Amino acid sequence: MAPTVLLAVLALVALVAPGLGVAPGCDYPAHRWCSSRDIAAACQVESRCSSLPHPAAAPVQLSLYYESLCPACREFLALKLFPTWLLLPGEMLNITLVPYGNAQERNVSGKWDFKCQHGPEECLGNMMEACLMHEAKNFSTFFPVIFCLESGSSVTKNLEACLQIYAPEVDSGRITACVQGDTGVALMHHNAQLTEALDPPHQYVPWITINGKHTDELQAQAEASLLGLVCQLYQ
User: Fold this and answer.
1) Most-buried pick from 112, 121, 147, 208 (CB within 10 A)?
2) pLDDT-based confidence at residue 22 (cuts at 50, 70, 90)
């Protein structure tokens, strides 16, 4: 039934039989029942108001567990994840980055010590990116910088240049202080806990979860056509 016809029917009902089928809390004339979702709810006619805007769907949640110097991780982030993020509206895709991967941690005299798959430089890169996220806070601010680092010649030596291009408002000194202090260690320990809590446990990197789940099929789809996968899942 067309909205105009429906409004006419509702108005007729209101005139012929006042109070018939009208919710007790509805103090609005019939011609306004479908004018907003709040009024339709108060008058209990939501199911009859086809013209009401529907709430936006929840964004697809993607989490990337990676290592800063892992070639396959860098390729996925730079060539698949970042372009997809640029192409899609912000409400469609929510990304979480967890730089840790196959690293290992151990408690040495009360302090966490980390060993990374690609050596100490990777541990530094992981911590730099974790500190960047911590200091910049806003995803749209730090993700282009991480893209710049991961797609460039050096993850650990280009921070200043990448910040100048993509996020000049972020203080590199605060990131350096984070890396050299207790905050960086705490952030890496947190990433270790997130990675170790994966179910099923991660077997390789990059390790991708979609809406909190990981399957071989989802991983393959994300690596083959991430844009297509997100568009398919976003309802």
Assistant:
1) 208
2) low
